[in-house]
Amino acid sequence: MRRLLRTTVAVLTLVFASTSLAPYAQADGGVFEDWEDKGIQTEVWQNLPGTDGLYGQLPSAGPSDPYIYESRMACTAADTGLFPACADALPACTAANDGEVIFWYKQLADGSQSGWTFHSGPVCIYGEKPRDILAEIAAAIANEFQKTPIAPAIVGSQPGPHTLRGKETNFYADAAVQDFNITMLGQKVHITATPVAYTWNYGDGVAWGPTVSHGAQLPDDRVGEQTKTSHAYTATGTYSITLTTHFDGTYSVNGGPVLPIPGQGNISSAPLQLTVWRAITKNYADDCIVNPQGVGC
Questions:
Q1: In this predicted model, what pLDDT tens digit does every residue of 37-85 receive, in sequence order?
Q2: Could you tell me the domains of the chain?
Q3: Closest CA to 250 of 182, 179, 188, 197
Q4: Please, what's the largest Cα pairwise distance for the chain?
Q5: What residues contact residue 54 under an 8 Å CB cut-off, 6+ apart?
Q6: Could you tell me which of 66, 21, 28, 24 has the C-alpha nearest to residue 45?
Q7: What is the pTM of this model?
């Protein structure tokens, strides 16, 4: 049953001063997003003042707005005269029960304007508050990000898999920006995971990070130099080097604005096994040319 009829100017006038919808408006603690996909709007819905519990989007430009507004049922006889293809352009209004389609009209609040002029529409209003899909996705996106199959960084060392005690061993990691397309609440959600920091654990009780340094491979003639991610072991043995890569996430819904995901994805790489040896230097007095059987020859 229709609860809002707009056929003449002598209908209920909604006079209000709300927050601006250009470019965004704050309402019910949420943020309006002016984009949609397949007719599903991710907006915040307000109870319209002066109506019998109807929900919609207020068109006011804020306290300084010089206009008052009136809602009229779309595609009445008068509307059809103004818009010949009116009925064919109407949205389905299926986001909630008792959906109606209206046009907004405006008039100067100081009374200096005679008559109403078209402002915007067609837009939907409802007899109950529609689901705020964007807010529901925002509430669940952090948990979804934690379940995203982000590939860990690949870890390497120079030298390796063997190195020498007391010498600098260069470690490096290769992590990539990764994109994922998922579906949440029937909406297309795009997630981007970007590596931003690294925590190194060298396996001998020494750890470093989080740091932005992921290291890099050195030319062969520079292996042994100290780098930001290198480490010198003080004892021989076999060590397991682990790396945790910290990923920041962003997401967008139906191609809309890119928004940050709370928290981080902390992804551990497979351990890198490294054996540390010691080098022994001995001096010998034998001349190997004279005594080829001498010690060290």
A1: 333 444 556 777 667 777 777 777 677 889 988 888 777 655 555 555 6
A2: 26-125 (no CATH), 133-277 (2.60.40.10)
A3: 179
A4: 123
A5: 3, 4, 47, 48, 100, 125, 126, 127
A6: 28
A7: 0.60
